[in-house]
Design goal:
mainly alpha, binds fe (ii) ion
């Protein structure tokens, strides 16, 4: 196996979190082929799929094969029918849980979609995680927050790029405009993922791709898995664009707060650049995403308006779950991450 640049993946396989992820992790280093009969059947009756460690890790293991893959795992696993069948058994309860969480959404005519997105975002009353990070969080808590976010930000924008070949016309042009900024207009040192790596480095955190996977709980994996679910299924392209719009429309203010929190803790402009960049960029992206991208999509495909709202609502709702998890761990005087010994014991 060739040497790997840890910054860009593939990451080494993580520790198991239950019987299904354990069986999959046993199989992945071997030749692609059959998995144990009935593997993942039990996911159909999981009570809380969004916070089920075994289900979320199983999904993450399957999805990552479409991104950077796993170190010392054959690339052919990506399209192995047995693995795709397992993935589907995890996806069904996951998607159903996302639809329950997003709740009933108003029927919306294409012309009213940008306004409906604005209403949805305005009604978002999530826990005040950003305000806590701005005003009170200590350095260790800030490092925790960045550790959770590293799973996404070190590959920032990648899940939404799955939409590009599925679109044409104005929606595609708008998505490209957003993604160009996310990818630094082709300049490595301006790519948002690389700006985030610098922040992590300043905080003394390992900047390897998915280096903190064993430490993040199911809800953090769910944030990532929902983007992969929307991104890898063409039928969910409306939800994928809605998700991106929801992110962009709720980004500017929290990012200002994150940057201010780091400044309060004594960090310099290099450390805060990732957040500062998003204050400016996402104020622009917000408009492009709602009007040009999502508006353009539903002008071309009016039937997708409901999916766009669902994608935005699901993203915001899972983020609220995440924020609630972090804040309740902190107010109980604990850590929002999985204990290192638990991650090791699971291995
Ligand atoms: Fe970004
Ligand atoms: Fe953005």
């Amino acid at each position: 196996m060739s040497t790997t640049d840890r910054r860009h993946g593939p990451a080494p396989l993580p520790a198991a979190r239950g019987p299904v992820s354990a069986a999959l992790l046993t199989a992945l280093p071997g030749s692609p082929g059959e998995l144990p009969a009935g593997l993942g059947d039990g996911f159909a009756t999981v009570a809380a799929p969004l916070t089920d460690e075994d289900l979320q890790l199983t999904l993450f293991l399957c999805y990552e094969l479409h991104y950077r893959g796993w170190r010392d795992v054959a690339e052919e696993w990506e399209w192995e029918p047995a693995l795709l069948a397992l993935r589907a058994r995890a996806e069904r309860p996951f998607e159903a849980a996302l639809r329950r969480l997003a709740g009933p959404l108003p029927a919306v005519l294409p012309a009213a979609l940008p306004a409906a997105l604005t209403d949805l975002v305005a009604a978002d009353d999530g826990p005040a995680l950003a305000a806590t990070l701005q005003r009170r969080a200590d350095l260790e808590q800030f490092r925790e927050f960045v550790t959770h976010r590293s799973i996404y930000h070190l590959r920032e924008a990648d899940p939404h790029s799955w939409a590009l070949p599925r679109l044409g016309g104005p929606a595609k042009a708008a998505l490209v405009e957003i993604q160009m900024d996310e990818y630094g207009n082709g300049r490595l040192d301006r790519m948002h993922a690389e700006l985030f790596r610098t922040t992590m480095d300043r905080l003394g955190l390992d900047t390897g791709y998915a280096a903190h996977l064993d430490r993040v709980p199911a809800v953090t994996l769910a944030i990532n898995n929902l983007m992969s679910l929307f991104g890898l299924h063409r039928r969910l392209r409306g939800a994928l664009l809605g998700h991106l719009a929801g992110y962009e429309m709720t980004s500017s203010l929290p990012n200002r707060r994150y940057g201010n929190g780091l400044r309060r803790l004594g960090f310099d402009a290099v450390a805060t650049r990732f957040y500062d960049e998003h204050v400016e960029a996402d104020a622009v992206h917000e408009q492009i995403a709602a009007y040009d991208m999502c508006g353009g999509l539903v002008r071309a495909e009016p039937a997708l308006a409901g999916d766009v709202l669902f994608g935005a609502a699901a993203g915001l709702a899972v983020d609220r779950l995440f924020a609630g998890h972090v804040l309740s761990a902190w107010s109980a005087g604990g850590s929002s991450l999985r204990a290192p010994d638990r991650a090791l014991a699971a291995a």
